[in-house]
Each structure stands twice: as C-alpha cells, then as structure tokens.
Design goal:
Number of helices: 18
Shape: globular
Radius of gyration: 23 Å
Number of strands: 18
Distance between the termini: 33 Å
Number of domains: 5
Strand content: 15-25%
Strand order of the largest sheet: 5-6-10-8-9
Structural class: alpha+beta
Largest sheet: 5 strands, antiparallel
CATH topology of the largest domain: Uridine Diphospho-n-acetylenolpyruvylglucosamine Reductase, domain 3
Length: 482
C-alpha cells in the first residue's frame, strides 16, 4: 500500500462514507472555481461534521504531509479554494458543518458553524426580529467560514463595515490540529495580539475557520431604495457627498453602475426592466435604512434628498421604489452584473480600491487609458463607490477565445490595471481576497516589509506549508527564482 493509499484509508476510517470520498463524479464539481479560471486535482474530498473531526483530520494530514484546501460555497472570485493540478492536496469541505449552535436575541449575537449559508443566517436572524448586516449577490451559496476567511464586503460596508466588523468571536483549527477557541465575545480584551483578527482574511492559510460568533442588528423598520440617472461618474461622487450630508447614518448603501453594465443585465436577466424611461451614462443605487420605528420616515428622507440634489443640479433623473418588490428589483439589477457580463464573453475582473475621495477621478481617468492601451477591449467599473471599491472589468475584444485570451493579453491588462491602482495609492484586492489569482501581483507590488511580516506569520503558524498552499502569501524572492 502506497503512502497516499494509507492516508486515504485512514481518512475514510476517521470520517466515514459521508465524510470522505474519492468518487471522481462527486469531487469534480469542487475542483473548478466559480469563474472557471482554475481547475485542479485532488486525492479526495473530506467533509467533516464537527470541529473535532476537522482537528483529527488536520492532525492526520500533518502526519502524512498532505496539503489541505479549505472550501466553503466555492463562490470565491480569486481561486482561493481551488487545489493546484498536482493531485496531492485534499479538498476540505466545511458544508456539512451547517448548524446554528447558539442565539441570544437580547445580546444580538448568533453563533454558528462555518458551513452555514449566508442566506440561512439572514433568515434565522429575521425570525427573531433581527438582521445580519452583510449581504452580497452570492448569499445563496456563500458560507460564513468563507466570508470570514476572505473578509468579504458586500453592499452594506458603507454603513456597517466588512465581515471583520461583524465577527465577535471565532473558532479555528490550526496546522497542528490544535483548536483556537475564541467564540465567547468580549467587548474589551487586552491580552496581547487580537488573534481572531489575524485569522479573518487569511484565506485558510493560517487556520481552518470552523465556527464564529457574529453580531446582529435590529431589523429594519423602514427603508427607501432610490435609482438615479447621472451623466458622469464624478457626478456620482458629488451625489454621494450630498447623500452623506443629507441622510447621515441612514445611508446604508451607495452603488454605481455604468450604462453598459445595466444594458448587459437587461439583456441577460428575464423580466428585468430599466427603472428610468431614458438610459443614462451612469446610474446610482442608493438605500436609506431606518432601524427604529417612528424615529424617521425613510421615504420622506429620500424625497428630501432627491429634491435638494435636483436643485443643486446633481442628477439627471431619479425614482424611488414604490414598494419592497420594486426595491428588490432595483437591487437585482445590481446583483446580476457579474453573471450578465460573464455571459458576454471573457473578461479580466479586478476588485480594487483607492481612497474614497479619489475613486470617481480614478475611474474617469483610467478607463480610457485601458481601452487605448488595449484596442478592442471595453473597460467598465461598477460597485461600492461609497467604500472606494469598484469592480473594474475589462471585457475582451470580439472573437476572443475564453481561456486563451485571459492567459495572453488578459495578464498584461491586469498588470496594467494593478499598476494604475498602485500609482493612485490603492489596493489590488478590496474584498475578494488574493487567492492564487493575485498572489504573484501582490508579490510584485506589495510593500516589502508587509510581505516579510506575512511570510513570517505563515512560517510560524504553518511551518509545513500544508494549509491552502500557493494562496495569498507570495513566495520570497529567493524562493520564486528556483
């Protein structure tokens, strides 16, 4: 019996038939990332049902030297949950660990396992008159563990922050199989490093997140969703500043999308309708949210915001959703951009940020530069203008072959975009993580001191390099030359 066969036998004995499989048909769907950019191989897939089983499995992997690739809903954007093509790694699925283990409505806290689906968490909170203040288009498949591991953002970061701000406590299995248990939330805890924050956003390279305690907020008492037509992205920035002054803490979200993206969604999504009679070069989607009954009227505040914005010449046209159905229709137009543009053909998709005050100028200045540098491409930007984070997509020229184009001209495009972002003092990864997609670019553009610190932490917590190898942490210069 080979060493690999010995490991697989031991893993099967540990986890049972539901917890370990080498069936090619069962494993295959989890070997390709959501975007279809990466396909790897694996010796099998483990699906433990508890933290104790994860711990035992990690110890087994450490004994046999088997790399582990943690995976949640496999909806990541940077190839961070896909194994390489060596066939030596084990995919570690946390999807069976999907229990909500504690709920405290008075404290507004919920504790759950890593495999809980985001939408399930939303529904559980709603049953108690509360809400979890993070959402995104993939809420039906994204898991809590994956959201923590990538420090996910979404459409409510403007008011509530990213996933990092929602995590009160965390449980994770480290590379030696030991369990880091910090699920109990403490408002103040000054016992040295905040280790849970170190694990958040580490993409499974420092530990396998198995559970979390999360903060909840009161359910919304009222909301208003506004669709605005604009002539220029800089007008959107002016409108954002106006909305912040007018609505204050009620401003829950401020998203922008260009005409091209809206037209793509209307063509791709059955039943989708344009909110305004005329098409505009840019659109803004604004949400005002009220948590306390009687404290404010969201519709009245929205109407006042639009009236003063119109008087100031900040918009071309606008409408307020008349009911919840229409409000959801507006948000669907935003959420469907990524799949709609994927249907158009190959594209290089960048998740970038620059200082909030500079984002509109960055978009206006750089989109034409990209199109001029790479004739036939179409550059578009959409997303969280209020967070200084847009999804910066460069669509391939007509006739480009998916797969070939990304590996050729696409890589040159991404390097050019990342250079521009760096020149503007920004980040090449705002909310989707580094994964394998941007690891080398982080090594090329990242601050040497920060990169050295990352490598030191990785070496200290995972000296064998078995946790999600090849992701997030760039190789040291001397290692990358061999």
């Amino acid at each position: 019996m080979s060493r690999t066969e010995e490991f697989c036998t031991a893993a099967a004995d540990l986890l049972g038939p539901r917890g370990f499989t080498q069936d090619a048909e069962l494993v295959a769907p989890w070997l390709t990332d959501w975007r279809g950019r990466y396909t790897g191989k694996a010796i099998g897939m483990a699906s433990p049902a508890s933290t104790a089983e994860v711990s035992a499995l990690v110890r087994l992997c450490a004994r046999f030297g088997v790399p582990l690739v943690p995976q949640g809903g496999n909806s990541g954007m940077s190839g961070g949950a896909t194994p390489d093509d060596s066939g030596q790694a084990l995919v570690l699925s946390l999807r069976r660990m999907n229990r909500i283990t504690a709920f405290d409505a008075d404290a507004r806290e919920i504790t759950c396992e890593a495999g809980v689906i985001l939408q399930t968490l939303h529904e559980e909170a709603e049953r108690h008159g509360l809400r979890f203040p993070l959402t995104l288009g993939g809420k039906g498949s994204a898991t809590i563990g994956g959201l923590i591991s990538t420090n996910a953002g979404g459409t409510q970061v403007l008011r509530h922050g990213s996933m990092r701000e929602q995590v009160l406590g965390i449980e994770a299995v480290l590379a030696d199989g030991s369990v880091f248990d910090s699920l109990v939330p403490l408002k103040k805890d000054n016992r040295g490093f905040d280790l849970k924050q170190l694990l958040i956003g580490s993409e499974g390279t420092l530990g396998v997140v198995t559970g979390a305690t999360l903060r909840l907020l009161p359910a919304l008492a009222d909301r208003a969703v506004i669709w605005v037509g604009l002539g220029d992205i800089r007008d959107a920035r002016k409108l954002l500043v106006h909305a912040q002054a007018s609505a204050g803490d009620l401003l829950e979200g401020f998203e922008v999308m260009p005409r091209h993206s809206l037209e793509a969604v209307l063509a791709h999504t059955p039943g989708a309708r344009a909110p305004l009679e005329d098409m505009h070069e840019w659109n803004a989607l604004i949400e005002l949210a009220v948590e306390n009954t009687g404290s404010d009227n969201a519709q009245e505040r929205a109407q006042a915001l639009l009236e003063t914005a119109l008087e100031a010449g900040l918009l071309e046209d606008a409408t307020i959703a008349m009911n919840e159905t229409q409000a959801e229709e507006f948000w669907t137009l935003r959420d469907e951009i990524a799949p709609a543009e994927r249907a158009l053909g190959p594209a290089m998709q960048h998740d970038i940020s620059v200082p909030v005050a500079k984002m509109a100028d960055f978009v206006a200045d750089t989109l034409p530069q990209v199109e001029a540098r790479f004739p036939g491409t179409r550059a578009v930007a959409f997303g969280h203008l209020g967070d200084g984070n847009v999804h910066y997509h460069v669509l391939a020229p007509a006739g480009a072959v998916r797969g070939e184009w990304e590996e050729g001209q696409g890589k040159a495009i991404s390097s050019f975009v990342h250079d521009l972002v760096t020149q503007w003092g920004g980040s090449i990864s705002a909310e989707h993580g580094i994964g394998q997609l941007k690891r080398d670019e982080l090594g090329r553009l990242g601050d040497p001191v920060q990169l050295a610190m990352m490598r030191a932490v990785k070496q200290a917590l995972d000296p064998g390099g078995l946790l999600n190898p090849g992701k997030l942490v760039p190789l040291a210069p001397e290692a990358s030359t061999h």
